[in-house]
Amino acid sequence: MAQPERHLHPVPDTEAGAAPLVPARQHIHTPAGRSWFAEQGQILGALLRSGVGRHAHLAGEWIADPAVETQARLGAESRRVRLQVRAESRITKARTDAQKADATNALARAQQVGVNELEISVRTAVTRACRALVCASVPVGVTAGPVYLTVTQGEWVTLLAWPGVAGYLLVQEWAAKKNGASAVRATEAPSSRGEVSGRPVAAGVSGSPVPAGVPGEDAPPTREIVGATPVENRILERLTEWDALARKRGLAGVRLGEVTLDESGICVVLDTHNTLTPAALTKKTDTVRAVLGVPTATRIEITHGDIGDQAMVRIRTREKELDTTWRPGCEGIGADSDTGEVVELPKGRKLIAGTSGSGKSVLLRVVMADALCADEPTTVVYIDGKGEESALWDGKARVAVEPEEILQVVRELVAESQERRDAMRAEKAATWAPTKERPRIVVVVDEGAEVIAVDHPDDLPILAGLRSLARTGRSRCIDLVWCTQKPTLGDGIDRQINGVMEIRAVLRTAGDTETRQVLGTRWPNHTWTGTGLCVVKGTGREEDQSPVRVWDLSDDAQVQSLPDRDPWHYRGPGSPAAGESALEVARRLCGAERGVHTAALEAELGTDTLGVHTAMAAFGIYPDKTSFWAEGTKARGYRREALLGDEQ
């Protein structure tokens, strides 16, 4: 009887389909050379396929880059602005009434033209089509080019391009695999109520930010963050590939720091590390948006971090739900979009700027409503260069629309300012104390570019008076509020007026140039896409401030429900009620001469040029630059014929 085979160790049964167990000391005879080459070939093939796939993926991202649509929108807006600027320039240079009328019509048409979505779509489609052609031409050229040159010209050396490109792809993919993607662990910052924007905080997720992985180490497996939106999860997924994506976009060397998810969205710390400064990275906001695949409608802010080389990137995927509807009793101009705290503008000179559609008109309404509802005696003078809003403020403010009306009210304001100066000197007071009879005057100029366009040093010297008010009105409680949608010096704001505007509320701007003109560097307003957001400068709020969400006073009925006020008018010496003495003085000084010089009237009446012009304009008498001194020299003043009128 045969003895059963004995084993030193029990051999377990193998499951069906499983590989049989082999004793440890059994040697498997395998052709080692062929196995090693096959294994290496398999690795190289996988790397090559992965490299081709990675470049194809990057090409697709480049074609579908959200920044393409952003640039198309900016291009359309720039074209519209150029049309307006060209029309305004034509108005200024017009020599005849027909030319001026034609230019005015052109300006009206340009202002009515909005941003055409079809134009933006066409611009975007053309740009993406060009990018697609570029991406398609590269592989076609690499594949077919060497064959064509070899067959037609015998340049067989060009065939070396194939192994060269393959080697390039292999090296690139090998380096990417070796370095690994930077690890990203997003954690939700704790909320005082235990939730973030209405979403529960994920169980087991720490409430403090976790540093990103060290470059060179394998990234942990990515997962969706509980409580994050699909958009946030896509951005977080792309953050795990930051090194590779950033390198392709020209941000090589910018290292990823910690990432947190809080009530305002995703917060990312980037270390520029000798490659860029945080200020330079701010100029590449569109590039960062493209790298992370942030939707165009989502706001991105890049500010300085806690350390010199650090930049803080805030991706506003979430917004506090704030009730921004304006109601009687609302304080300030709006609420901080992060904290919800009310943001107020101090009394004094103010500059309000923002491109078309940014919410500038609504912010201006809030400022005017705040002045009308103030406890301190306050009146509003509204210079409406466009003439669109003036009807809403009739009976609530002194309104001036036509150039002659604007000139008249500016002259009255200058005369009031000088009278307050004299009263302050007599009372030895440094600042004016508003009373019911002589209240604080808030002078609102909207739109500044229109006022600049109609100003003329001889015929309509409007800017001279506004400059005087801007320089001297603060202590005399005459506050100039200059509003413009083109905050460029000389076009939308006068250089002298811009220099004294210490308080600035700036909404979305058309470009980086406009932002620098009114705020300086490092401000992100030109990168915004929303409406009704602004930053405030001159009140202590820093450059990295959260935007202010402006109170919504877009309802015309709410404006009309504001309390009525008696429109302000100048009542001092030289006003229409008491201006007759100025005419008598002018006639007396003229005597038998051919005219009287403005300087002589200034000395006699104790006022300046604008004060003289205001007093004389009440009688329909305006200066003439060809009036004469007694010795016969020409100078600016009033002719004898104009002074005597019907009595001559």
Automatic annotation (TrEMBL):
ATP binds at residues 354-361. Gene3D superfamilies: P-loop containing nucleotide triphosphate hydrolases (3.40.50.300). Keywords: ATP-binding, Nucleotide-binding. One of its GO terms (molecular function) is DNA binding. InterPro entries: FtsK/SpoIIIE/SftA, FtsK_dom, P-loop_NTPase. The keyword Coiled coil does not apply. Residues 330-516 form the FtsK domain. PROSITE patterns: FTSK (PS50901). Transmembrane segments: none annotated. Residues 186-222 are annotated as: Disordered. This is FtsK domain-containing protein.
